[in-house]
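[agent] plan:
  1. take the single chain provided in the ticket
  2. run structure prediction with default settings
  3. attach structure tokens to the ticket
  4. add a short note for the reviewer (M.T.)
[agent] executing step 1
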Amino acid sequence: MKKFLIAATALTVMAGGMATTASAAPRDVREARQDVRAAKQDLRQAKQQNRAERRAAKRYNAGRYTPPRGYNIRRYHAGQRLPAAYRAQAYRVDHRRYGLGAPPRGYEYRRVGNDVVLTAIASGLITAVVLDLFN
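[agent] step 2 finished; step 3 output follows
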């Protein structure tokens, strides 16, 4: 009788341990999938940010830069709006001269300090920034 009780108890403990392991396996798989999803999301965000702001491979000497009246030199980022004062012809940048890709229709490059920003002509919304293109 004693051997029977010990065997029954051992069998119960082993069965309970297996049930716990079996139920934990799907949870581990789910967590692993969530980790993979999060890593992919981080990579996508890093690529988007890298696309929006990048350093210039080559720097160019251009004429002296003077900001529009009432504005200081500052860094703009993608998603911000460029003030209307920067839409003057003096701040327009020729993409062919400085090795930049052709802007999409409705966009143009503008110089802001040593940086160049790609902005929508109608709204001034900044879509990309090339940092330190000018000396």
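[agent] step 4 note for reviewer: The mean pLDDT is 82.
[agent] ticket updated
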